[in-house]
Design brief:
Elements: H1 2-9, H2 43-62, H3 67-71, H4 82-101, H5 117-120, H6 126-148, H7 172-198
Length: 203
């Protein structure tokens, strides 16, 4: 009974998509910025293309929302929000460089007092949202500069890794693949969060 009463209180949201070709897509193929005709024929190109694709997917899932909507925890009791995802993945970009290069960069949002700072600090404030987007783009650009300067995917990390229980060493290919997995996992969360905000669906 309690579950039925809770469900009855949920606001009605109509599912919709901007796509006119495929109802399970975000936009029509010709309008999708993720789709390119660039040929990919090696491991490095494949990894970087998947990273580009999932970064763009996150940005698309947040498109057209204001600060309140971005910060809305639309799938309770989870503390996740789309704004929290942007902050969390900005932190992830920085983390990759700390592990691979030993870059002395502090945590963006997490502290010893609040290890969930990526999420708890994602409040419905336009300034907080603007800062999160700025920081995300700044961190991505720094990661891309690093990746452009390292041609060997077999390069080993020089910073401290949290890969495995003993902080095992890892190669650049592992770090980039881990970043892709992190984006892909959270883009799945973004699918649900966005649909519960305004009903928009699509891959």
């Amino acid at each position: 009974m309690e579950q039925r009463e809770h469900d009855a209180e949920e606001p009605e949201t109509t599912r919709w998509t901007q796509s006119t070709v495929y109802p399970d897509m975000w936009v029509d193929p010709d309008d999708d910025p993720r789709e390119t005709d660039t040929p990919i024929d090696d491991e490095r190109g494949t990894l970087l293309e998947y990273l580009r694709y999932y970064r763009l997917t996150l940005e698309l899932k947040c498109a057209g929302l204001d600060a309140e909507q971005l910060a809305r925890r639309s799938a309770p009791p989870s503390t996740m929000s789309l704004l929290g995802l942007v902050r969390h993945l900005a932190s992830g970009e920085r983390h990759l460089r700390r592990v691979m290069t030993g870059e002395d960069a502090p945590e963006l949002y997490r502290t010893d007092e609040d290890r969930e700072g990526d999420w708890t600090g994602a409040v419905a404030d336009p300034a907080v949202a603007a800062d999160a987007w700025r920081q995300w783009h700044t961190e991505m650009e720094a990661t891309d500069r690093y990746l452009a300067g390292v041609s060997d995917l077999g390069t080993w990390n020089v910073g401290v890794s949290d890969f495995g229980p003993d902080g095992a060493d890892l190669q650049l290919r592992d770090a980039v693949l881990g970043q892709i997995v992190e984006y892909a996992r959270h883009c799945g969360h973004a699918d649900i969060l966005r649909e519960r905000i305004d009903g928009r669906v699509g891959q």
